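Hi Q.,

Before the meeting this afternoon, I wanted you to have the beta-D-glucopyranose prediction in hand. No need to reply - just skim if you have a minute. The sequence and ligand are here:
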Amino acid sequence: MGSIDDGSTRRNTGTEENGDAARERAVEAALGKLDLTAKVALLAGADMWSLPANADIGLGRLVMSDGPVGVRGEQWTADDPSIAIPSPTALAATWDLDLARRIGGLLAQEARRKGAHVVLAPTVNLHRSPRGGRHFEAYSEDPHLTGEIGAALVAGVQEGGVATTPKHWVANDSETERYTVDVRADRRTLRELYLAPFEAIVRKARPWGLMAAYNQVDGHSMSEHDALNNGVLREEWGFDGFLVSDWTGARDTVRSALGGLDVAMPGPVTVYGERLVAAVRDGRVPEQAVDELARRVLRLAARVGLLAGAPAAVPVPPAPVDGEALAREIAARSFTLLRNDGILPLRPGLGSVALVGAAAAEARIGGGGSAQVFPTRVVSPLDGLRAALPAATALSYTLGAEPRTHVPPFAGGLSAELLGADGALLTTATLPDGTVRWLGQLPDGVGFDVLRAVKAVGTLTPRSTGRHRLAIRGAGRFVLTADGAQLFDGVLEFEGNDPAGAFLNPPELVVELELEAGRPVEVTLRHTLPEASAFAGFGLVSFALGHAEPVGTADELIDEAVVAAAAADVAVVVVATTEEVESEGVDRDSLALPGRQDELVARIAAVNPRTVVVVNAGAPVLMPWRDRVAAVLLTWFPGQEAGAALADVLLGACEPGGRLPTTWPAEEEDCPVWEVAPTEGRLDYTEGLFVGYPAWQRRAAAQPAYWFGHGLGYTEWAYEGLDVHLTAPGAAPALAAPAAASAAVPAPVAAAGEDPYAALARAVVRVRNTGARAGREVVQVYLAPDGVDPSRPDRRLAGFAVLEAEPGQVAEVRIDLPLRAFQTWGDAGWELRPGGYGVEAGRSAADRRLSGVLDVPALDVPALDVPAQG
Ligand code: BGC
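Predicted structure with the ligand bound:
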């Protein structure tokens, strides 16, 4: 289980080879029938999510959909529900490649169900700084762990016959000025850190697509980066899939076409289309370049079964997966027990549990932005514990402290009237909650050109008497009424520099209103569409009606929770971030929990020593109270089965299986990389290779709260033996030829060299389960090259494996250490220095229980060509 590279993702069977050849023939035949305009039409979105069909060549409409935590489909609302799995940080916390592959299978199944052919995932940028707004959406601070999990997920999706686009290629590790930021990192840093997960995925899992990032690298936009797109990705690594722009990320017709960008999304207005036709006609872009781009789009269509005469790569979908059960399994496997004085698992026969926290009643299942999906149900911690606790255990619930800075969407159904000129009714639609969001398409085929306004109407039946809050979220002109009385008539302005910000993080206006329990009120919110939508070129309607019942003052809420917690045998406090705190489009200002949640935990811990804190966050938060509570359980953004999995873990039906994929700081000022704002448009990665645990380990002064790799289970482990030996003295096996090798597909330069992921060495680790219950352990192997090359970080993860053992049982795992783990990027390309390498096995980057030395002789590993950069 140490690597997905069992050969099955790379080696083709004879039938697959035949399939590749047949697909290439069909692609060439189709291409030969297209004139320039028809070829160019393949290269740009017809709308928000799809590429156009072409009946003349038997090409179907090709649909793409976000994203990493489920497949949203072509709608962006709760009326097209999806299975919502835990955040990518949670998936990485499982360190479980089989599970990642099964998740890929589920994403493929969801994609097929929704008619999508490409899943816009996984996000394999690195956790350079915990402030990155999309931290929750990426896997890890470590390139090896990121690459392994990413490759397993891609393999799983593609085994289901659906394409992926690992993203965002490359160096999109934070959000500030994300459309334009020019990232500068030295060659070695780029190669060893930021390119590394992409390289592993491309070489091992052979993705059918990749998404170019918005940002620039070395002054070249990634949608135009010839040296990285055509040079490194295609010629050196042998990538034969399609490269799609991030949404609105293609800026220049000629530079994109020559820079290897196959598809500009979304459409219909893009830098391609007529502009590309003109560029070919006047000689700025050779037609062969367009042929190359079109060929790759047709190859994609062939692989997913949309091109007549081409056999789909996976003609029969794999056996169905139970999505809800898998979402629950992933969640429990990902939950990371950071601290436990023995209180967990909770003993049977508890008299009472006090459950506290806004997220206990309403789980935060995901972060904000394009990674959002809308499940049919969410099991909250309150629901999960209520169902799992025995009837004899009393369960109380108090809110304690509110982390949300915004009023949540109105929870009841709404109807929406779509209005044309002079208020004429064009059509009506029903909405499952207060969110109105249509991108690219309107209900009943209404055209954006005729839509002038949308009026949402709903009936609010108050649960309690008092001051309710109604909210408008969105940018533009709004009129809000309650039982005919006008509460607001005005314009909400979006202030910010992210063009998608008005959609991702819109402004909010709150109105308070005295209402009586049980007396229904009709609420209407009318939105007049602005002249131009947030994303030029395609239609967008996005606003929400919010509603919140009256609650006590912040002091009253905390007091009430403290009283309940003091009276209970055990207090379980769920603290959380929100989808606004962790979101695409913005970086975080602070790692502190929002609102007064820290104070809530501290006060509860002071009155009940049996306090368990459940941290519902996708990325690091500060936990100043962590040493004063009995247990800290990190549940990430746990997806739709949040509460069911939480009950499984708290009550001991499942062991928390997670290990941190990223080091969690104790204090903000200790973070190795804090600055994410560019200076005059440039963001310099001056820390070089020292990101994550290597950075923490070179500074003795500041210790993190919890190290990369840390996580407790419900049993104990003794590390009893480590043997390490070279597996390939002389040379590693040659890289397999690309599956689709043909005249049309360039052979990778690397085929002349070595497979960097072949095992150079093998570590055999023996561990004993010394506890009283069966358990699962993640054995981590670090390579410490200090004696060979002092310029390298003290250690880096080189391999890992998951094992299971019964009490008293000894388990042995063989963990292959790839050639690449020993290599560094030098002037001549990848280099391997001979010498004595430290090899360490343990439970985290700091808890290394066994060590040995591996003597690596001088090996004849030819360096790869180094393509010129930009
Ligand atoms: C995000 C991508 C996403 C795309 C489509 C962009 O803003 O950066 O990750 O796939 O939107 O939603």
